[in-house]
Amino acid sequence: MEPELRHLRYFVAVAEELHFGRAAVRLRMAQPPLSQQIRQLEAMIGTPLFVRTSRSVALTPAGEAYLNRCRRVLAAVADDVHEAGRIGCGEQGRFDIGFVSSAIHLGLAGPIRRFRERYPAVHLRLHEAYTARIVERLLNGEVDLGVVRDADDHDDLVGTTFATESFVAVLPTDHPHAGDLAISAAVLRDDPFVFIPRVAGERAYQRNLRPCLEAGYTPRIVQHASSWATMAHLVAAGLGVTIAPASIAAVVPAPVGVLPLTDTEATSEVRILRRRDDDRITSTGFGQQVAP
What we know:
Elements: H1 5-17, H2 20-27, H3 31-45, E1 50-52, E2 57-59, H4 61-89, E3 93-99, H5 109-118, E4 122-128, H6 131-139, E5 145-149, E6 157-172, E7 183-184, E8 192-195, H7 202-214, E9 220-224, H8 228-236, E10 242-245, E11 256-262, E12 267-275, H9 281-290
Parallel strand pairs: 3-4, 3-5, 7-11, 8-9
Antiparallel strand pairs: 1-2, 5-12, 6-10, 6-11, 6-12
Helix pairs in contact: 1-2, 1-3, 1-4, 5-9
Pfam family, one: HTH_1
Protein name: LysR substrate-binding domain-containing protein
InterPro entries: LysR_HTH_N, LysR_subst-bd, WH-like_DNA-bd_sf, WH_DNA-bd_sf
């Protein structure tokens, strides 16, 4: 037989009290079973740990050495239990967030900073990707939270709205309507478009199309771009025009105009998603921090 944690706890109690009766009270057990457990521990070790007389109890040299080791073992076990609990509720360990790049321009850095201040023991890792890819990784357990734009609904995910944006027209400065104060999507019917790829997410793709579809046409897409910043620069290069969420204004280069869209109520929504069965405080807390 090998000593178990209960043997170590019993031994430490007797060693600190130097009295079997007081140690039994401290351990909330009867004295005879405690004495039996200590004798069992000494038999397993192969040497006495206590010198017992009718009047006193004292540690042997082996007992004194063993007491220090037992305290270290019990402290380490307590630390391990505490750490496992913190990891289980999300207050320690690793936390992965997938995000669309455009969320940064909507102030995502603020909640991320507050999260790191609140949970300094958590190793936060950020992963930039398309909405569709973030949702896939979230469902597969590869990320813990997703900051997504116009994501398709899923029964296993719940979310909090982070931001809702209107759409704008993005035109090169030499476009005939670049000087307008606002513009209808109908005016862009004959222009070539730079657009997000469909693989970014079906709902996101359809939301971006909506102002054009409401105006009665499907845009002629000549180029796809993986980010709004890239799209804005391709517009500046003269490849075409685009319709995008209003936050694209934060990344457009100088030779590009951003105009409010008229004749549409279409909006784009950025949400914070987590798995429905994930009730860790880090997952639910992040959503609460970013709620408007």
